[in-house]
Amino acid sequence: MTVFVQTDDFDVGVQLNQLRLANPNTGALVSFVGQVRDINDGDVINTLTLEHYPGMTETALQAIEAEAKSRWDIMDSLIIHRVGTLEPLDQIVLVAVVSAHRGEAFKSCEFIMDYLKTQAPFWKKEATTQGERWVEAKLSDDLALKQWQK
Amino acid sequence: MKIKVLYFARIKEAVNYSTEEVDLPNDIVTITALKNWLALRGETWANLFSGKQVVRAAINHTLVDDLAAIQANDEVAFFPPVTGG
Predict the structure, then answer these.
(1) What is the pTM of this model?
(2) Are the CB atoms for A6 and A12 separated by under 8 Å?
(3) For helices A139-146 and A102-119, what crossing angle results, to 10°?
(4) How far apart are CA B76 and CA B64, in angstroms?
(5) What is the pLDDT of residues A22-71, one digit of tens each?
(6) Which SS3 state, helix, strand or coil, does residue A113 take?
(7) How far A54 CA sits from the closest chain B CA (Å)?
(8) What are A's interface residues with B at a Cβ cutoff of 8 A?
(9) A94 within 8 A of A29, measured Cβ to Cβ
């Protein structure tokens, strides 16, 4: 269970191989990569800047991983989330989970992303051709979270 | 009691700083009470903390609801709904 919050980019292939090879007892690896879109709400995006709450961010992501591990039989997981100023096509986040079989890995990977979206203290600010604006939280993200609530 | 208060994202921009030490009156013991107390600081603060906007809170790095109790030396953070991922 590993968490990285960093400004640097990451190599998905290298990260997934490391996770896979470190866990010979797993038969399934599921991952999600989020990237910066070039258009949001109809406006061209020049940059996307991510602010976070150092200290709490890491704690929140570790808690989300621990919750996933308590719900599903997963062997290991990895979250890398970037902060700072990014451009369209830049990678923002990687979540990867390994388990014995695919079902647990698919479910827990989606669970981690849904929780991350609504519980981890990150905030996005877009610089568009119309100026700068904070990204608004989406109702659809809250609804996605609800499906996991016991 | 003395606590540390942190602000993030659009709230930080609105109040124009990110952190402060405050000495709370004795009757301010919950997040709700702290929000109401901060709202008395003027128009900017009233707009943020009088309930018109959703302002989330954390105490010592844990998300809490507005009924959560504050204790001396806590680190309390206020921020908008999160938008990572």
Answers:
(1) 0.96
(2) no
(3) 140
(4) 10
(5) 999 999 999 999 999 999 999 999 999 999 999 999 999 999 999 999 99
(6) helix
(7) 9
(8) 34, 50-53, 55-56, 59-60, 81, 92-93, 113, 116-125, 134-137
(9) no
Residue among A55, A122, A136 whose CB faces B84 most closely: A122
**Neighbour-count burial of B34, counting CB atoms closer than 10 A to its CB (0-12 exposed, 13-18 middle, 19+ buried):** buried
ipTM, two decimals, is: 0.95
| Backbone phi and psi for residue A84, each to the nearest 5 degrees, phi listed first | 95, -165
Q: Per residue in A75-131, pLDDT tens? A: 999 999 999 999 999 999 999 999 999 999 999 999 999 999 999 999 999 999 989
Number of residues in chain B: 85
Chain B residues with CB inside 8 Å of A136's CB? 81, 83
Looking at residues B29-53, what average pLDDT do you find?
A: 96
CA distances from A55 to A6, A21, A133, B62 (A): 13, 29, 25, 10
Q: With CB atoms and an 8 Å threshold, state whether A134 touches B84.
A: no
